[in-house]
Design goal:
The complex is a heterodimer of chains A (187) and B (172).
Chain A (H helix, E strand, L loop, with lengths): L19 E3 L2 E3 L2 H10 L4 E5 L2 H10 L22 E5 L7 H9 L6 E5 L1 H5 L20 E3 L6 H17 L8 H9 L4
Parallel strand pairs in A: 3-4, 4-5, 5-6
Antiparallel strand pairs in A: 1-2
Helix pairs in contact in A: 1-5, 2-5
Chain B lengths: L4 H12 L4 E4 L5 E5 L4 H10 L7 E9 L8 E9 L4 E9 L5 E3 L8 H12 L2 E3 L45
Parallel strand pairs in B: 2-5, 6-7
Antiparallel strand pairs in B: 1-2, 3-4, 4-5
């Protein structure tokens, strides 16, 4: 006898944003709708250098599947990604490369620093390690840990999702954002 | 007859006499010091000689001894005889004001990148090296990190708590 079919009835569905709804339509603001769409389909660009990269690989694997949260396609090209995940120690010689990768990303883009080394240089306080990637690119979320557990990395991605959902559509053209980029010498 | 340390010593003293100093055998590995101007001659002799046959350069590294005035920087060569499985160590000392050492790339091709690394970290100038520039550090770096006068930690940090690092806090 074959096993009876079991349907997964416990599927979590994202709730619709509040708005004025009627028969067959829902009127909300662009911010909410676009924020909802963006946050549930963040494509990360893994910039994995060392041990945190391995933890990131574990996060993408079956047990701690990151694709559940919409990050299905890890396109390893910055041109097609939204989120730059820097996992691992970045040496001073690597810093211009990291900057180049960041510059190639299209707006809107977010950056997540995974691990102690990416956030602040970690235990490697030496002549060769960049003391935190925020010396070369603006960072949105820092995930501490050495290495952080996959659950923590997922938590970091959820915080990014909160940022994405609540971001105003005009933010990328605002003066404040331009000033932020100017402080990193990015045009 | 196997190639023993005594035999190597005999051959070296017979050929170079009093130039070879500081012969010792820590952990059974023959170690000797050679004046800086002669390092290529000795290496070439060890390479060409049919009995000694030290044809493999295992390692080339530097060291900084700030207390030895006039001889602060040193280059250490580890040579290996692949057929008799014998290793020896050759040391060369140079003063820090004029850290010139003849490049071993003439004898061993593998010395190329090792000398670049030694230059990068100690500032030793290898005369005759085809491409002496920094290999592991950032090209614009103007100091030599492995020298003892260089501090261990990155100096650009402003937020380190001295007490936590054992440097005495301001509390007690």
């Amino acid at each position: 006898m074959s096993r009876p079919v079991q349907y997964n009835t416990n599927v979590k569905i994202v709730e619709i944003p509040e708005g004025y709804s009627g028969e067959g339509f829902l009127a909300t603001s662009f911010d909410k709708a676009i924020g909802l769409a963006r946050k549930n389909s963040i494509w990360p660009m893994p910039f994995a250098t060392s041990c945190c990269g391995i933890e990131f690989m574990a996060t993408l694997a079956a047990t701690y599947d990151l694709a559940r949260f919409g990050s299905e396609r890890m396109a390893f090209t910055p041109r097609q990604c939204d989120l730059l995940i820097v996992a691992g120690t970045i040496a001073k010689k690597m810093a211009p490369v990291l900057r180049q990768v960041y510059l190639q990303m299209a707006e809107p883009r977010w950056v997540m620093a995974v691990g102690a080394c990416a956030s602040s240089g970690g235990i490697f306080d030496s002549y060769s390690v960049l003391q935190g990637i925020d010396q070369v690119i603006p960072v949105d979320v820092y995930v501490p840990g050495c290495p952080p557990r996959p659950e923590m990395i997922i938590d970091g991605v959820l915080r990014i999702q909160d940022l994405v959902a609540n971001e105003s559509l005009r933010r990328r053209n605002s003066d404040q954002y331009k000033a932020l980029l100017a402080s990193y010498n990015i045009q | 007859m196997a190639l023993t340390n005594e035999r190597i010593k005999e051959r070296l003293i017979e050929k170079f006499g009093g130039e070879i100093t500081g012969m010792e055998e820590p952990y059974g590995m023959l170690t000797f010091t050679v004046p800086a101007a002669m390092n290529l001659k000795v290496m070439q002799f060890l390479f060409d000689d049919a009995e000694l046959n030290f044809r493999f350069l295992t390692d080339l590294t530097g060291a900084n001894f700030p207390d030895r005035k006039g001889e602060e920087l040193s280059v250490v060569y580890h040579l290996h005889n692949l057929q008799a499985n014998v290793r020896i160590r050759m040391k060369v000392f140079v003063p820090v004001e004029k850290p010139d050492v003849f490049s071993a790339t003439a004898v061993f091709a593998g010395a190329n990148w090792m000398e670049r690394e030694t230059f990068d970290f100690y500032g030793l100038n290898f005369v005759g090296h085809p491409n002496l520039k920094r290999i592991l550090n950032v090209d614009e770096m103007d100091y030599f990190p492995m020298r003892k006068e260089f501090p261990l930690e990155d100096q650009s940090r402003t937020d380190k708590d001295d007490e936590m690092f054992g440097r005495g806090g301001s509390q007690f």
